[in-house]
């Protein structure tokens, strides 16, 4: 049991805000065990999941912007992933394979490598006791 543990669930533009909402919601149901926090990339994403004070806004690609969310936590759960976008003009009825691209600044190297490294480095600096990394398929909107 992790009594009074703080779990920030960190996401980027590549893990849909709904993933964060579902995961923080599950932890918040167990207030006797956890104090959950979240990190989203934009104010718009924060509003999508309720805009609570325990949801921080920062960009995992910018190490300084995530420090406030990580300070004082016991465990970090990383839920980030680069999200490929489907190129416009794809017509499923023609049977062609869709083509995908990444937005500028949102390639796997920038999100999955640099972003996760920034989170881990910030957690180490804050003496976080545990780090859990989950791969999130950025295409899943559920």
TrEMBL record:
- One Gene Ontology CC term in the entry: chloroplast
One example of the protein's molecular function in GO is: oxidoreductase activity
Stated name of the protein: NAD(P)-binding Rossmann-fold superfamily protein
Organism of origin is Actinidia rufa
């Amino acid at each position: 049991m992790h009594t009074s543990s703080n779990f920030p669930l960190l996401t980027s533009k590549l893990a849909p805000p709904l993933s964060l909402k579902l995961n923080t919601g599950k932890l918040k149901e167990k207030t006797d065990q956890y104090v959950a926090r979240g990190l989203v990339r934009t104010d718009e994403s924060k509003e999508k999941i309720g805009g609570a004070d325990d949801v921080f806004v920062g960009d995992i690609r910018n190490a300084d912007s995530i420090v406030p969310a990580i300070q004082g936590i016991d465990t970090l759960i990383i839920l980030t992933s680069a999200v490929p976008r489907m190129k416009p003009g794809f017509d499923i009825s023609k049977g062609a394979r869709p083509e995908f691209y990444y937005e500028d600044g949102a390639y796997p190297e920038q999100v999955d490598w640099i972003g996760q490294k920034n989170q881990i480095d910030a957690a180490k600096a804050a003496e976080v006791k545990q780090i859990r990394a989950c791969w999130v398929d950025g295409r899943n909107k559920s």
